[in-house]
Specification:
- The protein is mainly alpha-helical.
- 55% of the residues lie in helices and 10% in strands.
- The protein contains three helices and two strands.
- It has a two-stranded antiparallel ribbon.
- A hairpin with a 5-residue loop joins strand 1 and strand 2.
- The longest helix has 16 residues.
- The radius of gyration is 12 Å and the shape is globular.
């Protein structure tokens, strides 16, 4: 398993995260657009993405 260790890796992995960070909005399953009040740091997002990968691949 390849660990995500850079911001660019994270943004390539998830277009939704890229959109969220650039626009401050996210589209829900119903199609409704949600304004995001705040985001985590890139480092925290990288840690979360790596944990999710570990859970999915194990």
């Amino acid at each position: 398993m390849k660990l995500i260790n850079e911001q660019t890796d994270l943004l390539k992995l998830s277009p939704a995260i890229n959109t969220l960070l650039s626009s401050g909005t996210i589209v829900g399953r119903s199609g409704r657009i949600h304004q995001v009040q705040g985001t985590s740091t890139i480092n925290n997002l990288v840690v979360i993405a790596n944990l999710m990968n570990e859970l999915v691949l194990s």
